[in-house]
Amino acid sequence: MADMGSRLRKQLESPNFDPQNYVKQLSQQSDGDRDLQEHRHKIQTLADETAQNLKKNVYKNYRQFIETAKEISYLESEMYQLSHILTEQKSIMESITQTLLSTDKDETAKEMLAAFPKETEEVKQRTLTTLLEKVEGCKNLMETPGRYLVYNGDLIEYDAESMSQIQKVHAFLMNDCLLIATWLANRRGTVKYKYNTLYDLQDFAVVNVKDNPPMKDMFKILMFPDSRIFQAENSKIKKEWLEILEETKKSKVAKDRHKKEEEVPNSPVRQEVSTNPFDEEDEPLESEELVDLSPEWIQELPEDLDVCIAQRDFEGAVDLLDKLNEYLRDQPVSPRVKELRSKVDERVRQLTEVLVFELSPDRSLRGGPKATRRAVSQLIRLGQSTKACELFLKNRAAAVQTAIRQLRIEGATLLYIHKLCNIFFTSLLETAKEFEMDFAGNTGCYSAFVVWSRSAMKMFVDAFSKQVFDSKESISTAAECVKVANEHCKQLSEIGLDLTFILQSLLVKDIKAALQSQKDIIIEATKHRNSEEMWRKMNLMTPEALAKLKEEMRSCGMSTFEQYTGDDCWVNLSYTVVAFTKQMMAFLEEGLKLYFPELHMVFLESLREIILVAVQHVDFSLRCEQEADKKAFILQNAAFLHETVLPVVEKRFEEGVGKPAKQLQDLRKSSRPRVNPESTTSVV
């Protein structure tokens, strides 16, 4: 047996093993099912042995696995450190090279200026004038004094979304702006380009685009909320564009800062003391101009905000705004501060638009309530808690609606309701917890959440009623579904949110209709049975059937039903009365599951009408029946209804509702049958 197992193992492990040929040969060689079963048993045994050996090897080499993982982790950290060291060395070498090149450039520039003191700027201006003559629609660009050309060249523009080529452009970088011109298809004389866009150097940021073949040698210009991508001819020209753009922007910032510093007087002018009390409103302007806006981070703040917004660094943008507000808190308002404020306010508006878009329902809703925390927290920090609250609740409403819409409708209604309640109330609970966390310091927003909870509950009830009540489900199924919804709704009380009353008020109309519909069905069925009533005892034929009926009546609360049973599977009651009792008690139990105070009169009146149909039928039969034996049997059924069934109904109703039903008590007393011994007729 061991040799056969070894041969089978070698056969299965051979590299040329073909499962189809193996099965084909095996089926041809086997005599019947017995051989195939034995072979199957061998293969199963071999598989179990292989699995056991694999498990043993795993346990045996478990420590080696752990040590190997540790070694890999150590190696990874060392490689990271090595990469970090190489990066630092590379940056040091580049800085040294840049320093040497800048030194050479400065010396060369000094020599050129010494040799040609006025030629450089004049040549640049003449060159710019010559080049701009080739651009259609930009004659007024040279009206700005001191503007000259820094760099220019051909670029190819690509679409930022699809990365498809759009057009060929020519870019002119000047000392204070960047001109983008498109190529003319039909040239006219010396005109080769057409004016497209002019950007101020302070209004955009330059970002390097990582090479991803075939898309390479690209850089991006960010002008929130837009961006444009350009491709240079090669990596060298791209590097020149990036470096010259950065240097030109820095030069303009430094020049503007130097110009503003020159406007501030070196020493404040001493104010003359005035004895006129009406001169108090005329504050000295010089003190306002002493607000120090020269720090580099303030000068670069608008550009840094643009970069943060473009890179979706919302926290960094708000941190910069908080830093600026803290810096200017106790400072006087001057024209320069107002100018800075106007630029910053524009960025705040752009940042708000981006955060609003992040919370819009058009965005992905898969992350749950936590996915909105980032945008909500930044809006609150910007002082827009009301807008944040409104957008957060709209986002969650769309998420709940989408989840309900995507829920597949099952054949079993109760299964669908379980899934619906689990999705809705779980989402509502998560939303409430996230809302409490995000808006902990904004108690004024809690009323908005309560209003939103009501609208969300209405959305849930619409889906619930459509599946449970509109599809005409049985009242037992409806009762189970309402019970499930109530149980899930009570779970919200753990966070102090009780929506049970709202749920019941939204369901009351459908539950009333369901109770009245079921009442009509029971009355119709009872009348149909009454029309065929023969007033005969029930013969259940078998002891099992009798035992089953006894158990059913006992579960309905009829503890005295035993006294109405006889020998040989006979029951001393009519089929109509027994069927009515079971149907009546089932309606009572299902109605109690659906019960809440708003349904009290509807439920009580339905019970009264159903009982009245049975009582009136018994009374009519007593008055019409002439045979003494049948009349005695009818009286026995009437006694069962009045002495057993109706008291149980009253007791169970009082237990379920919490107060007695006076209408049922009055009905039982007024309809009690009384027999006249002389005429043997009943009086109701």
TrEMBL record:
ATP-binding as UniProt keyword: no
Domain of life per record: Eukaryota
Domain PH, by residue range, is 148-250
Which Gene3D superfamilies would you find in this protein's record? Exo84p, C-terminal helical domain, Exo84p, N-terminal helical domain, Pleckstrin-homology domain (PH domain)/Phosphotyrosine-binding domain (PTB)
Q: Which UniProt keywords apply?
A: Cell projection, Cytoplasm, Exocytosis, Protein transport, Transport
What family does the entry list?
Belongs to the EXO84 family.
Q: Would you tell me the protein name for this molecule?
A: Exocyst complex component 8
Task: Give the source species.
Answer: Chanos chanos
